[in-house]
Amino acid sequence: MYVLGIETSCDETSASVVKDGRRVLSNSICSSLSFHKKYGGVIPEIASRMQLETIAQVAQVALKDSALPLKKINLIAVTNSPGLPGSLLVGIAFAKSLSLAAGVPLVAVDHVLAHIYANFLDNSQVKLPFVALVVSGGHTSLFYVKDFSRIETLGETQDDACGEAFDKVAKILGLGYPGGPIIEKLAKSGDCKKFKFRCSGTQNPLDFSFSGIKTAVLYAVKGRQLSLKEKKDIAASFQESAVGALIDKSILACKKKKAVSLVVGGGVAANNRLRVRFIEEAGGAGIKCYFPPKPLCMDNAAMVAGLGYQLFKKGLRSDLTLTLE
Ligand code: KG4
Ligand code: ZN
């Protein structure tokens, strides 16, 4: 079965063709990131306008790269939540039009859960059930996944998302956007013990809080002219503490659920230091960790097509009344 996925929840416009929920035949992505950089964050109005201009061409490229004509597509899967409303509406309207014009069924997909599914593309090693951590620019959540239509939320951030904290710390340090890759690069040659940054506690131990640590960085920096060495030390100290909180809570979730598999997804899952520490520390607790290939950690339509296939097989369908959730 061939599924065409459509993803427009943030600054990317993406379309992808995936076979049987596993094999990525094409994954076309057009990002408006360069237009947002000078503002230090995504400007919703710019994102949705760019998506409106590019979506048809991005879908055409996905079909061309897959070497399949539209009439061979059996299902259209589209992200309808969560995300920027204007951006989501562009993808939803396009997917509905295509579904109507081509007479192909439609299924709606949750973007956060699709980040988990990125681990299943071109990989059949992960077995259900498992604990999943989604760690992106908009979300930091722990889930228990029995199957793809029965997902229990175990915890989520009470304030900033982890990726958002990386972005804000980079901004505080006067660096560019998005901050995650920049902080990771700086942290490599920094001393992670130099600054004592801590993530705040939460009432539910499986929830997260990253706003306190971001403010701690702000106070450490305030009114000072930082040397490059100091910036590196701050980046390393922040990263180590943020990753530590992600690991501790993920291991706790696995223990609570007696899970031996931990699946990680979302943009921050591209971080090498995070990957190394997760494998070491969760591995030490008898838990096997899985990560998507790095390009599939970021927003993409392949993960939407893949999860859409699984939901369709479970009997889920959407119709032309589909809108934002
Ligand atoms: O999943 P994603 O592409 O979009 C959302 O759904 O939010 O994640 C983007 C986020 C940004 O906050 C970005 O700074 C962060 O992922 N990120 C990273 C790294 N690469 C991207 N954070 C830490 N280390 C990285 N290497
Ligand atoms: Zn995302």
Explain the layout of strands and helices.
Elements: E1 2-7, E2 12-19, E3 23-31, H1 33-36, H2 44-66, E4 75-81, H3 85-102, E5 106-110, H4 111-117, E6 130-135, E7 140-147, E8 150-156, H5 162-172, H6 179-187, H7 211-221, H8 228-257, E9 261-265, H9 272-284, E10 288-290, H10 302-313
Parallel strand pairs: 1-4, 4-5, 6-9, 9-10
Antiparallel strand pairs: 1-2, 2-3, 6-7, 7-8
Helix pairs in contact: 2-3, 4-10, 5-6, 5-7, 5-8, 6-8, 8-9
The structure holds 5'-O-[(R)-(carboxyoxy)(hydroxy)phosphoryl]adenosine (KG4) and zinc ion.
Residues 10, 136-138, 163-164, 166-167, 178-181, 184, 266-268, 270-271, 298-299 line the site of 5'-O-[(R)-(carboxyoxy)(hydroxy)phosphoryl]adenosine (KG4).
Q: Please, could you describe this protein's structure?
A:
This protein has two domains: 2-117 and 297-313, ATPase, nucleotide binding domain (Nucleotidyltransferase, domain 5); 125-291, Nucleotidyltransferase, domain 5, CATH 3.30.420.40. Helices cover 42% and strands 20% of the residues. It is built from ten helices and ten strands. A hairpin with a 2-residue loop joins strand 7 (140-147) and strand 8 (150-156). The longest helix is centred in the last third of the chain and has 30 residues, at 228-257. The structure holds 5'-O-[(R)-(carboxyoxy)(hydroxy)phosphoryl]adenosine and zinc ion. Zinc ion binds next to helix 4. Zinc ion (ZN) binds next to helix 4.
